[in-house]
Give the backbone structure.
Amino acid sequence: MNACVFELDDFQTDDISLYALTELRRRNPKFKATYYTVLGNCDMAVLRDLGGLDWLELALHGLDHGAERFWGYEEAVSYLDYAESFGVFSKLFKMPWFDEMPDGLARALIERGYRLATRRRHLVDNLRGSEVPVWLGCQWTVYAHPPTLPKRMLEVEWEAFDRFYTVSQMFEHKEALDKQWVIHV
């Protein structure tokens, strides 16, 4: 069996990412994806429509893909209040720019029960002892950014996958836990 966890960074309701969603779902009806969303650069009507798709996970990836590294607790709470008001996002956050998570943002996310995603384990070292679950990725991961997405769509044999998972589904997946694709820091 061939499994896939498809992750798209920097989603901003751009045409390439929206096309990829429909095209990949057409190629394989089992297709699922997690799109890390830059909320401040999105069309809210499009996000609301996408939020109704049971095979797409919209996760948070900051407001503008930059200022998050300077946020204190109050700014983080304000951002989460705003994001949660749409009712379309999972409780999953990925810090932009591979930066270490600021303490105020980390505190706000942990208090609200968010899980985290990163491709670099050392970026969550400052959260040790919090027991927050962190997705690190795995060999099943197909990863892309909007500019690389057309090439990735051609490189990957999407029809060959018989199972797709969102990142949030991996937090409960036995193999992900056993192989430490998901850790608790």
About this structure: The chain is about 30% helix and 20% strand. Strands lie at 3-11, 33-37, 56-60, 89-94, 115-117, 133-135, 141-144, 163-165, 182-184. The helical segments are 15-27, 44-50, 73-84, 103-111, 149-155, 167-170, 174-178. The first strand starts at residue 3 and ends at 11.
